[in-house]
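debug: dumping io for the single-chain case to check the tokenizer round-trip. Nothing else runs in this session.
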Amino acid sequence: MSRSLKKGPYVDPRLLKKIAGKKPEDTGVIKTWSRACQIAPEMVGFRFGVHNGRVHNEVFISEEMVGHRLGEFSLTRKFLRHGGKMQKELEAKKKEAEITAAKAAKSEGTAAKK
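debug: decoded output
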């Protein structure tokens, strides 16, 4: 649900204070736990370390991100992969192909030395 227009966007005042009067090149990564903070145009070019519950993920703010929330760019869940029997078969074939390619390269290398 969006915030009321009367209230305006929520931008953490502490973050604005940290970037006020500074250049993006001069400042390093600015750590923050404020995931609900909306990205303001003044933040473009800065790097924020947005906390995801475990670590601070570095987020570089670009022009297209204005209006979004900081938390959208620091995922809290780690995606491993979709799995299943078919995925395992594909991985096994890929591994076999790598092994055969390595063996072929090795045999070519020994034949070239002789």
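debug: round-trip ok. The longest helix spans residues 85-113.
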